[in-house]
Specification:
Jelly Rolls; five-stranded mixed sheet; 17 strands; about 0% helix
Length: about 160
């Protein structure tokens, strides 16, 4: 079994796979009579067809170390995972290597971060690390199959950062 040390989620480290959504940095403008900071247009939603939809996912929490061999991707649309709690969650992604996923990487979010996966990005399943595992998910709603799954021939084990 191969070991993957989870990395802190940063916009720079995650850029090849998607967008990090957070309220970091200066807001683009103040709204609502100056009582609300708008951090504007933080993710690129990208759909080949269909429309954007918002669903609620309720996932069973996991813990580190975390073993997996399954990744998936959505060729027809981007997918955003927006936690409905401040608890961190695990994000597993892999580069595409000729239509198959390469070596995975794991990222650990901090409170107040969400992600938007680029269209076609190989990724692990939704992996909350605390209950409740409630997420708003923005993704493509439409006709046709928008899911490809891949099982690695060997399992991987994600450990906490620095281990």
């Amino acid at each position: 079994m191969q070991i993957i040390s989870a990395e802190p989620l940063t916009p720079q480290a995650f850029a090849a796979f998607g967008d990090v959504l957070s309220a970091e940095g200066a807001p683009e403008r103040m709204i609502n009579e100056g009582l609300c900071a708008r951090h504007h247009d933080r993710a690129r939603l990208d759909f080949s067809s269909g429309r954007a939809g918002i669903s609620i996912f309720d996932a069973v929490p996991r813990e580190l170390p975390y073993e997996f061999d399954l990744v998936e991707r959505h060729p027809d649309g981007s997918q955003s995972f927006i936690p409905m709690t401040a608890a961190p969650f695990l994000v597993i992604v892999a580069p595409d290597e000729g239509g198959r996923p390469g070596r995975p990487r794991a990222f650990l979010t901090s409170g107040g971060q969400a992600i938007n996966l680029h269209r076609g990005t190989w990724h692990g399943v939704l992996t909350p690390l605390a209950a409740p595992g409630l997420f708003a998910v923005v993704d493509r709603i439409g006709e046709g199959a928008n899911l490809e799954e891949y099982r690695y021939p060997e399992r991987f084990c994600v450990v906490a950062p620095g281990r």
